[in-house]
Amino acid sequence: MMIDAHRLLLPPDIRDSRVILGVSGGVDSMTLADLFQRFDLCLDFAVASVNFCLRGTESDGDAELVRKWCSEKGIRLHSKSFDTRGYASSKGISIEMAARDLRYTWFESLLETEGFDYVAVAHNLNDNCETLMLNLLRGTGLRGASGMKAVSGRVIRPLLNTPRSEIAAYAAEQGVPFREDSTNSDVAFARNRIRNNVFPEFSAINPSFLETFSGDMRHFSDSCKVLEGYFSSRCGSMQRMEGEVLYISIDELRKEPRPAWWLYRLLDGFGFDESVICAAAASIGSQPGALFTSPTHTLLLDRDYFKVFPKPMQGAETEGISEVCIEYASMSSDELRGIMHPDLFLDACKICRPLSSRAWREGDRFRPFGMKSGLRKVSDFLISKKIDRLQKAFVKVVTDCGGEGGSERIVAVAGLEIDDRFAVKIPSDNKKAVEVALIHFDGFNRLSGLFH
Fold first, then answer.
1. pLDDT, position 339
2. According to the model, what pLDDT value does residue 340 have?
3. What's the pLDDT at 434?
4. CA angle 230, 232, 220 (to 5 degrees)
5. Can you name the residues that pair with 244 across neighbouring β-strands?
6. Alpha carbon distances (Å) from 379 to 307, 362, 363
7. Which strands make up the sheet holding 155-156, listed edge to edge?
8. CA-CA distance, 347 to 421, in Å (whole number)?
9. CB atoms within 10 A of CB 260
10. Which of 389, 417, 392, 395 is nearest to 303 (CA)?
11. For residues 147 and 336, what is the distance between their CA atoms, to the nearest angstrom?
């Protein structure tokens, strides 16, 4: 069946759009360029040609073919060369990933600087089925099994439902010039191994396997949309964001028959491996405090929630964040009443200057505000405030040296509570000044909702 304009997968507004075509010089992209030129599909189009400089004179020859074709047809050409190997080495990624990053970053810049509406690329049905196989081999959910989309944001794939064999037949019949990439036969690349070794076996079993896979991907896509709709209607009651911290309700997870799937879906984008998520789901009902990590985040099992923290908020990286500032001042009753948490204030006449601060330690004790006798462990106080294992790393106590024999006393837990022994008694006379020690601590706020 000959390819024509009606078979192309195009957005509804294509006739009024300006499109830039990604053209490499291969049969797929040259056919796409010919179709746009032949059928006058859009308001205006131009060609973008990338030389990745990976195959020496062969790469240069591809670029020259595209240049010559555009010159003969009077098509505007944008061309770019990249040191792809150097970029891959600097980023620590594969050549294939580097080429993709460079290509699409440049395309996006052209969309903005040149005023194009879409970039069209020449992915075909074979490419889509190869991508399906690669996704399944690497591990994927329904979205990965749904394959590529014909329209994805401003990227369009008009040939996505067209087999490579039909593209080749069109190019031969219409005399479309193209160049063959010699690396297409190199089975060191996973995609080429699937293309050259696996697909021929599939074809022997089912000659229409491409169409079968295409139908499967449509079904996967439809199922994914239904599931996403249910997820969207349910996820609001399962999670909330406080600053940069994600709270996932354990009670709500327990209501679902497959809590591991919900956790997997809620943690999408946080970098957790499936095995880690399964282990986290299995920990539900266990003692709080279990930690699970990804390259970018930490997942904490707390009493009522899973909490997801960005990695930069841990350990030594907190230096300078949870700092305590102490100020001495003379304040009126009205001013004292206006002080808001997390600032705390002490009666300066009851403390032994200077005050200092340090990280809290096991065994620390103080008398929380309102407690009229005895002492309480800071650790027990933090539990009562539902301060979790990660949050405790940021807690600071403020001390003086007014204890017996000049020993240390805890006068406040910064940002949370003062010791009742050092509380200010606000005078009834609003004009009477009181000497106070103000404890400023904005670490909790700067940690973007880490504390309640």
1. 66
2. 58
3. 85
4. 55
5. none
6. 20, 7, 8
7. 77-81, 44-51, 18-22, 118-120, 155-156, 151-152
8. 9
9. 17
10. 389
11. 63
Report the candidate in 160, 150, 165, 156 with the shortest Cα–Cα distance to residue 195: 165
Element (H, E) at 235: helix 209-235
- Sequence-distant contacts of 132-140: CB under 8 A, at least 24 apart: 132/213, 132/216, 132/217, 133/194, 133/198, 134/190, 134/191, 134/194, 137/190, 139/274
Residue 447: both structure tokens together: 């940690």
pLDDT average per 10 residues of sequence, the chain (452 residues): 87 97 97 96 96 92 96 97 94 92 96 96 97 90 89 97 96 96 86 95 97 96 92 93 90 92 92 91 89 90 90 48 77 74 82 90 94 94 85 87 91 92 84 84 52 40
Q: Which of 187, 198, 60, 210 is nearest to 129 (CA)?
A: 210
- Whether the CB-CB separation of 109 and 101 falls below 8 Å is answered with no
Distance, in Å, from the CA atom of 118 to the CA atom of 106, rounded to the nearest integer, reads 13
| Cα angle: 123, vertex 178, 128; to 5 degrees | 15
CA 105 to chain centre: 18
pLDDT at 313: 46
Which pair of structure tokens corresponds to residue 374? 């005895």
Beta strands at 239-242 and 245-249: parallel, antiparallel or unpaired: antiparallel
Picking from 342, 329, 352, the residue whose alpha carbon sits closest to that of residue 407 is 352
Task: Using DSSP, state whether 365 is helix, strand or coil.
Answer: strand
Burial of 262 (0-12, 13-18, 19+ CB in 10 A): buried
CA distance 39 to 34: 8
CB burial of 103-135 (b: ≥16 within 10 Å; e: otherwise) equals beebbeebbeeeebbbbbbbbbbbbbbbbbbeb
- Quickly count: other Cβ atoms within 10 Å of residue 384's Cβ: 10
Quote the pTM value: 0.67
